[in-house]
Amino acid sequence: MSFINTRLLDCVSYGTECGPTWSTRRVTLNNGHTRRNPRRSRPLYVATVLFRALKEEDHKAVIAAFNACMGGLNSFRFKDWSDFEVANEILPVLGTGSSQQVQLIKTYTFGSTTVVRPIRKPVSGTVVMTANGAPLAATVDYATGIATFTAPAGAVLRWSGEFDIPMMFRDDALPLQAIGRNADGLMLAGDVTLEEDLSV
């Protein structure tokens, strides 16, 4: 299996669903209480993508992507339109005054509870880093989300930018349906389920 550093079509239809899933182990005790433990330390993103009334070239692009990925074998970039930006996110390290590296992240907070999500597929050309509010020159590996830089010792580091999710086709079949005809030929539709690839 491998990662194809290309984004799947953005021409999704209204009704497309994408969001985080968690896995919780639940055990009900004899006294009626429920003991709960997480099976993962971070969310797994799943999407049901609706392609409606695709143009002929888009239809061909979806089939090409599916076959190039060999169904669910290889993964690729996907844009979650509900959550694809980071604004002034504080990074979990301070500047050291020498060359250092840090994994880009996004933090989700509710009350006093925080979950940190590693951002592994930032979008090229969108990442901006600062040290104590001043622009910081950094080299970003857009395949891993790791930034390399030199910042003043003790400086607070932040970043802003856009990111994709590494996704794979959940199924090895791609059902597409002709729903009409227009000047471009057949209008095609299909629902495709994607699942985040946590291995890349």
**Roughly how much helix do the residues carry, as a percent range?**
under 10%
The SSE string, one letter per element, is: EEEEEHEEEEEEEEEEEEE
Largest sheet at a glance? Answer: 7 strands, mixed
Please report the number of helical segments: 1
List keywords for this structure.
single chain, 200 residues, mainly beta, 2 domains, 4-stranded antiparallel β-sheet, 18 strands
Explain the overall architecture:
The protein has 200 residues and is mainly beta. It folds into two domains: 109 residues, no CATH class; 78 residues, no CATH class. A hairpin with a 4-residue loop joins strand 13 and strand 14. It is globular and about 60 Å long. 23% of the residues are buried.
Summed up, what is this model?
Helix content is 6%, strand content 54%. A hairpin with a 2-residue loop joins strand 11 and strand 12 (134-136).
Task: Annotate the secondary structure layout.
Blueprint: E1 3-7, E2 17-21, E3 24-28, E4 34-38, E5 44-54, H1 56-68, E6 75-78, E7 85-94, E8 99-103, E9 105-110, E10 113-118, E11 128-131, E12 134-136, E13 138-141, E14 146-150, E15 156-162, E16 165-169, E17 177-182, E18 185-196
Parallel strand pairs: 1-6
Antiparallel strand pairs: 2-5, 3-4, 5-18, 6-16, 7-15, 8-14, 9-10, 11-12, 11-15, 13-14, 16-18, 17-18
